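Hi support team,

I submitted a single chain yesterday and got back a structure, but I'm not sure I'm reading the token output correctly. Could someone confirm the output below corresponds to the sequence I sent? I've pasted both exactly as they appear in my results page.

Thanks,
R.
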Amino acid sequence: MRKRGKAGNFAATSDPAMGETKFGMVSGRPTARDGHSANVDQYNYMYIFGGDRHQMPFNDLYMIRLNVE
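Hi R., thanks for writing in. Yes, this is the structure output for that exact sequence:
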């Protein structure tokens, strides 16, 4: 479970054992990972989904606002 904060990135995590998805704001950066998917939309938001780290799979989604000037 991730900690909610006032400022940060939006994240969704899924727990298959509990059959639920949790949404909330998280501060800091996504955990380092490889094998993930990342996309940027027309509103300068980057979406990062899944991946793994040392054979520990992630099933989370991050939405990060990019500061583009």
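A quick pointer for reading it: Confidence is low (pLDDT under 50) at residues 1-7. Let us know if anything else looks off.

Best,
Support desk
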